Amino acid sequence: QTICLSDYKVPAYLVDQVDLRFELFEDGARVHSVLSVRRNPESSAGDEPLYLHGDSLVLESVALNGTPLAAGDFDDLGDALVVSSVPEAFELQVVTWIEPQNNTRLEGLYKSSGMFCTQCEAEGFRCITFYPDRPDVMARFRTRIEADRDAYPVLLSNGNPVAKGDLEGGRHYVTWEDPFPKPAYLFALVAGDLVEKKDTFTTCSGRSIDLRMYVEPRNAQKCDFALDALKRSMRWDEDVYGREYDLDIFMIVAVDDFNMGAMENKGLNIFNSSCVLASQETATDAAFQRIEAIVAHEYFHNWSGNRVTCRDWFQLSLKEGFTVFRDAQFSADMGSPTVKRIEDATLLRTAQFAEDAGPMAHPVRPASYMEISNFYTLTIYEKGAEVVRMIHNLLGESLFRQGSDLYFQRHDGQAVTTDDFVRAMEDASGRDLSQFRLWYEQAGTPALTVTDEFDEERCVYRLTVSQSVPDTPGQTGKKPQHIPFAVGLLGRDGQPLPLLFSAGSDDAPVDRVLELTEREHCFEFHGVSERPVPSLLRGFSAPVRVHYPWTREQLLFLMSHDPDGFNRWDAGQRLAVDVIQSLIVAPEAEVEPRLVDAYRSLLRNTGLDQALVAKMLQLPSEAYLIELSEQADVAAIHRAREAVLSHLATHLRDELLACYHRNSAQGDYQLTPESVARRSLRNTALGWLLHIGDQQGLVLAQEQLRSADNMTDRLGALRALVNSDFVEERTQALEGFYQAFREDPQVVELWFSVQAASVRAGQLPQITQLLEHEAFDWKNPNKVRSVIGAFASQNLAAFHNPDGSGYAFLATQVCRLDDSNPQIASRLVTPLTRWRKFAPEYRVLMKSALERVRDKDRLSGDVYEVVHKSLAD
Ligand code: ARG
Ligand code: ZN
């Protein structure tokens, strides 16, 4: 069943107040709900029946204004409760019975290692009780939780605790009240035997906020970093957006079984353990950074998401795109802005571009969907954030801030649309963003083709840029978009040249954002005395592909001279892609010697920002190389990339060893950008040395594994060993590592994924063994992702085994998971849906694996949508 944006109608009934009482037991939970309902004055629906969503509920009783309803007065349709002929305003009392202990979908109320917790976004609240489960119905919630006192001493919900006490039979209760009206998707409940970590934050207006983190006792030592990140986020949102926290208490809970990363429930954020718990011994630098970003993201939602929420789920990017943009700004401020930009652009170009070119391509504001869970995508989140970033760049810092102030002020307490967001930006800035709105409506990645000419006599340099937006499923013949295109020009000696639009004017900038609005644009720069090298799309100023016939000469030049750090990195990537691609075509050809020289000077360059150097040393991933090809031949791509890697490592052995040692003396573990860069550099060097079977590298790796005082270095050494041909040593290392960390689920997940993502340690028979490992758990999404997900999306040469075994394996696991957790199954199937991207011999096998999934009995709606859309022609 397809749901369309064009069918949107305001709700026929509004809910002002929700009173909930949860009786939690081991064999189930009884939910008493009292709704204060009234007809919506804005609705033209007349005396339509009251329609309440429900899913997997056992209805025990229903009463209207205290009078039990007779069987003829309502319909329990299974997925809805419909009450005909209701008065203008009334109270509805509903009692339902649910079984959290058997809830393997992890939507609604469920149990995770002994504790009760909830996940209601997008449509999980209907698994708890009957309710108009749509974000434009906003109500005040009062929640009383009753449970056994010993097993569940901690009882939490949104807002402030207002009452508590003992009950008969060793039970107790706590009542919570949330003064802010909210959609049901922001409801949360937690009950468990948890330890509490406390802190406080004083807001800009001097209010003192109680900060609390609740975790299982074994994780008590892993909370400090998240609490500190929370305080940094709270301060930052005040400083940069003028947003002050609004309740007196803010809580974070960590749970092991969670479908996504985290959830911004009002005043009670719930996190996947792996996205919030950290210590030096167990978390990598990347994990620390991810945790800081996610803590900030969920906190920022309090304004961009909760105070101002979405009218309907087509507007999901309203809160997600904006909030990802905000958390990216925050991370840039906390660490290295260039590195953050490189990471975001890499994810976008590798995974979002692939999504936008695949069968599930959809606009940032989709026009239709079947299952909303399938639309928590890179397009909604990451491309949505890029769209907000472009508005930021077009308006500039100060007008953007005025726009966001206006947005929050105008829409506080409302459920609104992406269009309302853009309108606030327009109204505050006086800019016309009507063409810009196409970014929300048109799917597909715009492609820019750039050509240039130099008129030596007139000293005129001409850039011609044409844009086209590709067709996507259901959308053809697209209009040109409004694209901010940041450029600079470099002179022969590396000096930036002024960008003068007409002869005569002085002090021209050396950096400009050209605004593309036509299908083709021509820009003339005057007073250019020599043929420049163009630096295009600086800072990745728009989520587009750029085609320009760069020579290797030019790329090498930009790689060492471009003052824009992002483009410096990008030039290196383009050069490496070009070299690898020429080896795909001609496997016996020589590796470009100038690439070796370029990497040599990078390895020796201690003057340049070492965080940038660390990024520049990473070769483009196989996934990115696949994304760039028309008909990907995975084996050829893998072979070519490995050959370049071996060639570089062999010719740069001395420099790698020097780099390793130079970055080894570190003293105490620190999380500064400089020390993160040092660890990254030395682990990259180690990886390359082991890749070519270097004996000295082996000794260093084993020593590092033994003596490291942090997980980044320990895992770096393990990964290097796992990706080497030292079979015995890597087996030993894996065994030792597991024995040392078997009690820690987050580290065990790292241990799984390092193997599953490795072409050497993660061939299918080994993957099958991992699924049988004592630490593997089908019910835990993190474990599933760390083995099956890592295999199918990172271990590409093994997954795309030409015999089709990888595909068949994935199809089997997807079918298995579809019965217990459809959301996870639907995400896991993604790699198969990209079958059209591959060379014919792969394509056939991928397609038939997909057809096997399609033909499974009782396929979930989640997987149905993805599989059918990707098989449609
Ligand atoms: N709103 C959450 C976040 O981005 C994501 C929750 C999505 N959950 C889901 N089941 N689709 O922070
Ligand atoms: Zn979010």
Summarize the structure.
Helix content is 41%, strand content 21%.
Describe this structure in words.
With 873 residues, the chain is of the alpha+beta class. 41% of the residues lie in helices and 21% in strands. α15 (653-662) packs antiparallel against α16. The chain is globular and about 90 Å long. The structure holds arginine and zinc ion. Residues 119, 121-122, 259-260, 262-264, 297-298, 320, 373, 376, 823 line the site of arginine.
Mean pLDDT: 97
Give start-end ranges of low-pLDDT stretches: none
What is the number of E strands?
32
Ligands, ions, cofactors: arginine, zinc ion
Main sheet attributes: strand count, strand direction, barrel closure: 8 strands, mixed
N- to C-terminal distance = 19 Å
Q: What overall geometry do the principal axes of the alpha carbons give?
A: globular
**Spatial arrangement of strands, main beta sheet:** 6-5-9-3-2-12-15-14
Q: So how many helices?
A: 28
Estimate percent helicity: 40-55%
Protein name: Aminopeptidase N
Pfam families: DUF3458, DUF3458_C, Peptidase_M1, Peptidase_M1_N
InterPro entries: Aminopeptidase_N-like_N (IPR045357), Aminopeptidase_N-like_N_sf (IPR042097), PepN_Ig-like_sf (IPR038438), Peptidase_M1 (IPR001930), Peptidase_M1_dom (IPR014782), Peptidase_M1_pepN (IPR012779), Peptidase_M1_pepN_C (IPR024601), Peptidase_M1_pepN_C_sf (IPR037144)
Enzyme class: hydrolase
